[in-house]
Amino acid sequence: MAFANTAGGIVVIGVEDGSKNVRGVPDVLASEEKLANLVSDSIRPRLIPDIEVVPWRNLNVLAVQVYPSNTRPHYLERLGPEDGVFIRVGSTN
């Protein structure tokens, strides 16, 4: 959501932040579906990122491409539009 409110970006799930060690995502297809449902159910206005299973050696990671949005600001529905808006600046929200 923070990427959609700014310049977009890619999040890779299954890779450690500091070491960049690839850990993979167990049950990657179920995780992909769960992530898609969480985004659909939790973010307003509706956000549709590209979610892709990416094989890496004998593991799989999820790459989530979020494009800059024309319908921003996006917010977490449970927090509402006043408290639920996040933006990405550099490597922090």
Overview of this protein structure:
There is one protein chain. This protein has 93 residues and is of the alpha+beta class. It has a single domain, classed as 2-Layer Sandwich (Methyltransferase, Cobalt-precorrin-4 Transmethylase, Domain 2), CATH 3.30.950. 20% of the residues lie in helices and 26% in strands. It is built from 2 helices and 5 strands. The chain has helices at 28-42, 80-83; strands spanning 9-13, 43-44, 50-56, 59-66, 75-76. The strands form 2 sheets. It has a 3-stranded antiparallel β-sheet, covered by helices on one side. The chain has a two-stranded antiparallel sheet with strand order 2-5. The protein is globular. The model has no long low-confidence stretch (mean pLDDT 93).
Order of helices and strands: EHEEEEH
According to DSSP, the number of beta strands is 5
Rg measurement, Å: 14 Å
Percent of residues in β-strands:
25-35%
Proportion of residues in helical segments: 10-25%
Write the layout of secondary structure elements.
Blueprint: E1 9-13, H1 28-42, E2 43-44, E3 50-56, E4 59-66, E5 75-76, H2 80-83
Antiparallel strand pairs: 1-4, 2-5, 3-4
Describe what is shown at a glance.
The protein has 93 residues and is of the alpha+beta class.
Characteristics:
alpha+beta; three-stranded antiparallel sheet; 26% strand; globular; 2 helices; 93 residues; 5 strands; Methyltransferase, Cobalt-precorrin-4 Transmethylase, Domain 2
